[in-house]
Amino acid sequence: MNPLLVVDDITKKFGGFLAVDGVSLSVDAGEIHAVIGPNGAGKSTLFKLLTGVYTPTRGTVEVSGTAVTGMRPHGVARAGLVQVFQTSSIFPRLTVEESVATSLLATSGMSMSLRRRDWVRLRDEVASLLGDVGLLDEARSIAAALSHGDQRALEVAVALGCRPSVLLLDEPTAGMSPFETERMVALIKTLREVRGVTIVLSEHDMDVVFGLSDRVTVMHHGQVLRVGSPVEVANDEQVIAVYLGGERV
Amino acid sequence: MTVPWGGELAEEPVGDNSRGHSAAESEWVSPRGRRQQIAWLIVLVVLLLLGGRTLGVTNVEILIDSMQFAVFACATNLVIGYGGLVSFGQAVFYGIGAYTIGLTWMHMRLDFWIAFGAAPIVAGIAALLVGLIVLRTRGLYFALLTLAFAQLCYTVTLLQTGFTNGSTGIFGSLIPSLLVNPRNAYYFVFGISAVALLAMWFVIRSPFGLTLKAIRENRGRAEAIGINVFRHQLAAFVISGFFCGLAGGLFVIYDNATYPHLLDWITSGFPVFMLVIGGMALFLGPALGALVYTVAYTEISQRTQQWELIFGIVLVIVALFAPEGLGGLVAARTGRRRSWHALLRVARDRYDVLRGDRV
Ligand SMILES: Nc1ncnc2c1ncn2[C@@H]1O[C@H](COP(=O)(O)OP(=O)(O)O)[C@@H](O)[C@H]1O
Ligand SMILES: [Mg+2]
Questions:
Q1: What 3-state DSSP class applies to B180?
Q2: A120-156: per-residue pLDDT in tens?
């Protein structure tokens, strides 16, 4: 299989501090790829480098054969690489359906349209996305009034509105109750099976990582420590030493 | 920099605030609420149509003044309320609209109707040029740059005496005799204002308007889902400039004159004041603010020199006790309920953005 996302030697320096240091990564179509590592390892920075929020100091990013290095975030999103941020990031005063319509409009190139029916026409697609993430009953609620778990689900729906080929989820289950976590895991599985989306996620909950991912990249101090299957990674001496603090998983 | 989700939000009672608060803060209105609003609007339009015949000339002129200000304030609200871009310089485009008529009359004796039609276009082009520069900045810098542009244009207008008549302004019979009659002017200004407000309403309700609000709500997220923020904000700025220029043209009909102070920072402050008083969440809030302002100004300035002081006090009271303005109070009665939980969340979001936790 051809890799869908290819990252080569990506590097970010904040002042003199190397937050991400020569990371290379390749993700196949249909894969669920987890990026793990202790707090401060550089996972969020890596994701923001991939989607153009930060400009890399060095290195390249390619999605479906298109170089997106140095593009503005909106350009990267159009190329099919879309991120859900670690900190909840909603449109507080838009309704749930409006939020999803916004990304659908941007993706279909109708965000400058002055005809209301261009967005009324999208209602079915909005409803289908909300159905996927379990928010159909909340279509008319304002985003700010949703529970934390629902807000995260909404963010996924909004990202899906971009019809991404690769979806980056930065700590999608952080701060969630066990019930909400289970729902998110089920959702991520559905996304791959039903929509065929390739997913890269960062995660600190090892049960989630093991339950979901095909391959795992372990980061430490901005560098890649190990890449492999969940089992390989969990049994790696180095990984156990630096990341798991000596504990077995 | 990033605060992990766990801490502050884990303490939140989850569940009880997640349902039933539909559309408290959004512009979404229930069908019943919408019907009520339309009913009120019809009453208002009928009253205004009758008013042109039955009211005294003084009141007719106050209403003409209110209507041109309503267009100015709603146009400014496109940028401030819907775009989230606090511009203190919209008077530039208002003034350019008025001076398009004034200058073409003074130098060329151009036909009024052509000049009136050109006014919003010239203002829109000016907005494009200004926007290309000021929209490269954000927040306070944006506010200060728009202010600087306004003062620059004001000073140029004031000092180019040969071309603009300087501080004297341009007087004469700028408008056709038909419009000199206040009642004719009233119906003309009413018609143009109504069409302008309706057009802006369609802009707000369109995919473009929705995208603009999304950018206001969360710029980083909007970019991340593929929205070209600059292009949308520039378009909003141009549309706003267009309608500000139209309002400036309507001002000429009201006053049969143009002055440099139409471009100064005090004039830029008028629509800001109006949209704070009237409320920017409701589409017609700024128009309501324009009416309240014009009537209050007429009444107060006859009695005391201190009207600015009084407006200042009113502004503070509104900001403290009715932050959504009078329009917000009206909206609360027409099918929209406020959710304190939602408001708290919005406030916390804003706080996070200010602290820099949000992308
Ligand atoms: N904008 C920034 N400026 C300076 N340092 C940063 C910035 N963002 C992240 N860092 C630093 O980079 C390192 C990696 O952070 P991050 O990518 O958030 O780690 P992770 O997501 O793996 O917890 C941390 O030490 C963090 O303090
Ligand atoms: Mg992180």
A1: helix
A2: 889 999 999 999 999 999 999 999 999 999 999 999 9
Q: Which residue has the tokens 């341009």?
A: B170
Q: Closest-CA residue in chain B for A151? A: B18
Give domain status of residue A160, yes or no. no
> For residue B109, how many other CB atoms are within 10 A of its CB?
9
Residue A55 placed within a domain: yes
- Which of B14, B206, B225 lies nearest to residue A162, judging by beta carbons? B225
Residue A151 counted as domain residue: no
The answer to whether the CB of B212 falls within 8 A of the CB of B237 is: no
Beta bridge partners of A23: A10
Total number of domains in chain A: 2
The ipTM value here is 0.91
- The residue segments making up the domain with residue A98 are 91-145
Which atom of ligand 1 lies nearest, measured to the CA of A86? 21
Q: Between chains, do A78 and B226 touch, taking CB under 8 Å as contact?
A: yes
- Probe site for chain B from A54, A55, A63, A94 (most B CB atoms < 10 A): A94
The one-letter code for the residue type at B256 is: N
Clarify whether residues A226 and A193 are in a common domain: yes
Distance separating alpha carbons of residues B69 and B57, to the nearest angstrom: 18
Quote the CA–CA distance of A47 and A168 in Å, as a whole number.
7
CA distance A189 to A196: 10
Query: Which DSSP state fits A115?
Result: -
Share of chain A above pLDDT 90, in %: 80
* Closest Cα in chain B, distance from residue A168 (Å): 11
**Inter-chain CB proximity B218 and A99 less than 8 Å:** no
User: Between B31 and B257, whose confidence is greater?
Assistant: B257
Give the tens place of pLDDT for each residue, A169-210: 999 999 899 999 999 999 999 999 988 899 999 998 888 998
Give me ligand 1 centre to Cα A42, in Å.
Answer: 6
Residues A136 and A176 in one domain: no
Q: How far apart are CA B252 and CA B243, in angstroms?
A: 14
- C-alpha A25/C-alpha A79 separation (Å) is 18
For residue A7, give the CATH number of its domain: 3.40.50.300
Residues A105 and A74 in one domain: no
Q: If you write DSSP's letter for every residue of B9-51 in order, what string do you get?
A: HHTSPPSTTSSS-BTSSSS---HHHHHHHHHHHHHHHHHHHHH
Please indicate, yes or no, whether residues A11 and A65 belong to a single structural domain of this protein.
yes
Q: How far is the C-alpha of B252 from the C-alpha of B245, rounded, in Å?
A: 11
The closest-lying atom of ligand 1 relative to the alpha carbon of residue A48 is 17
Contact indicator for B238, B131 with CB cutoff of 8 Å: yes
Task: pLDDT band for B217, please (50, 70, 90 cuts).
Answer: very high
Q: Supply the pTM of this predicted model.
A: 0.87
Give backbone dihedrals phi and psi of B284, rounded to 5 degrees, phi first: -90, 5
DSSP-derived 3-state class of residue B289: helix
Alpha-carbon torsion A232, A233, A235, A237, what sign?
A: positive
Q: Is residue A155 part of a domain?
A: no
B39-323, CATH topology level: ABC transporter involved in vitamin B12 uptake, BtuC (1.10.3470)
- What the block records as the tokens of A166 is 């690769």
Q: Are residues A103 and A207 in the same domain?
A: no
Tokens of B309: 């002081």
**Is residue A137 located within the same domain as residue A25?**
no
CA–CA separation, B138 and B86 (whole Å): 9
Give yes or no: residues A123 and A27 share one domain.
no
